[in-house]
Fold:
Amino acid sequence: MSPAIFALIMLAIIVALVIWNKIPMNFILFVIPVVFSLLMGYTLTETSGFILKQISSVMESVGYMLLFGLIYFTMLTETGMFDQIINAIIKKIGKRLNVVGIMILTTLIGAVAYLTANMSTTYLICFPLMIPLYNKFKLNREVAFILCQTAIAAMCWLPWGIGLIMSATMAGTNAEQLAVASIPWGLCFIPAIILQWIYFAYKHRKAYGTLGLPEGEASVHEDAEETVDKPNARPKLFWINLFIFIVVIVALSYFKWPSYLVFIMACVLTATINYPKNFNEIWNKSAGTFFNVLIMLLAICFYLAVFNAEPADGSQMSMIASLAELLEKTFPGFLMNYIHIIFLILCVPIIYFVPYQLYNALYPLFISIGATFGLSPIYIIAPFVCNLALATSVTPMNSSTYVGATLCEIEAEPFTKHAAPIMFVTNLVVIITAWIFGVLHL
Structure:
């Protein structure tokens, strides 16, 4: 049996178990891929090697950053710095601030924060800052996550972004040229973002009868004293904490220093300055936020490892490579000219169930087919650079989804089920906008 057939059966089982919703997602991803690795003829030792290699790769690229980033921003939230910033904003803006303004702020902060070119870091910057406002105005935090991710997607053309570099590598194109070709797609997100604001504002007004402060919400003056009542709040150290925070952002976005080292130093400084007498207590409390994320991160590594597994001697294809080959053989010939557009339209529902790396693996296939119709590789791949990011935040197959959900204080799996249809529509709006303005040629 070919690896593609094994892959399809494995995907069908995982999808069925996810829909059944009786077994935790991480259990499914720990067990099912290992079983299929053994069925494909790999030994337990080989399977372990694939998994350890994948874990090492993921931890090196994002895991350590997530660990210390979550600790730092949880610790910073404990100091009350973000509460004080929000209180100052509310005092300054007063009655002029409403739900629409908060949604616009979320979009702007998400776009600026993605200058770090890392989704998880963007969540770490945006959500701790905005959570107090979401709570005050009763804004659904699933909405906030969707708005932030859409802003991230619009900025994914950054030439130093990991996603763009991976796409350029898989497609065999120049990263800078691909970035230039992707910028128009980023601009096509503007109508979609505005429509999201309108839609979510309508839903919020329908639910609460107002776009302003809900009836009975604490006044600005009452909120101003809120951080004083928190046992771990350090209002007198606000400016020191803010300075460290700004240094962290500059170090990540401008100097591109290793993120995990930046966060480690920020953790040590913040804990030492704010909690010199109970350093261990606050450190342990903050570190607890990473546990659930780590478990899911490891589970995803099991899944990706088996999906990408192939013997060193090349005697057997990986599941991803075999699926790409099967697609080329079975896809209707009259649609081949539009295969990349079809997969672009369907990227949100497909990536809900399979890793986004599948799309990267299909790029050579798309390019070879497009070449027969006179389409350049950059023309084929540019649409995926930004639009694919809409899908990666609303899938239980991506570790950054769990980071964002944890920071938004929501459950990841229910969120992905609610958000996926909205992102599917958002993706369609972007594609239609690109077609209208001549960015996409049919």
Notes: The first helix runs from residue 3 to 20. Residues 70 and 394 are 20 Å apart (CA to CA). Residues 220-228 have pLDDT under 50 and may be disordered. The two ends are 38 Å apart (CA to CA).
